[in-house]
């Protein structure tokens, strides 16, 4: 997993509970289109759907990539 640099003064970057749409769970960052932010850890866990490849996680972001995409970084899988 990638080391995440946290900016404590940022008003837009934060750790968030989310559902991540991913075919495998080896990646460390995901484009915004693969992320559904949810309100709580319980909501993330309840949204797990193996058939749709939705996995609960804690992510950090969104941040801008050099390619102009908004990315979320995986903190941990739930």
The number of domains is: 1
Strand order in space, largest sheet: 2-5-4-1-3
> What is the CA-atom radius of gyration, in angstroms?
12 Å
Q: What fraction of the residues are assigned to beta strands by DSSP?
A: 35-45%
The average pLDDT is 88
First CA to last CA: what distance? 15 Å
Biggest sheet architecture = 5 strands, antiparallel
SS elements, strand count: 5
Q: How do the helices and strands line up, and which of them pair or pack?
A:
Elements: E1 14-21, E2 29-31, E3 35-37, H1 41-46, E4 54-64, E5 70-77
Antiparallel strand pairs: 1-3, 1-4, 2-5, 4-5
Question: What are the defining features of this structure?
Answer:
78 residues, mainly beta, five-stranded antiparallel β-sheet, 1 helix, 5 strands, globular
What would you say this structure looks like, in words?
With 78 residues, the protein is mainly β. It has one domain (14-77). Helices cover 8% and strands 42% of the residues. The protein has one helix and five strands, in the order E-E-E-H-E-E. It has one helix at 41-46; strands at 14-21, 29-31, 35-37, 54-64, 70-77. The chain has a five-stranded antiparallel β-sheet with strand order 2-5-4-1-3. Strand 4 (54-64) and strand 5 form a beta hairpin. The longest helix has 6 residues, at 41-46. It is globular, with a radius of gyration of 12 Å. The two termini are 15 Å apart.
């Amino acid at each position: 997993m990638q080391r995440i640099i946290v900016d404590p003064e940022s008003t837009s970057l934060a750790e968030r509970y989310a559902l991540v749409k991913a075919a495998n769970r080896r990646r460390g960052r995901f484009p915004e289109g693969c992320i559904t932010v949810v309100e709580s850890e319980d909501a993330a866990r309840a949204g797990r759907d193996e058939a749709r490849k939705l996995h609960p996680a804690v992510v950090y972001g969104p941040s801008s990539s050099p390619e102009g995409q908004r990315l979320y970084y995986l903190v941990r899988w739930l």
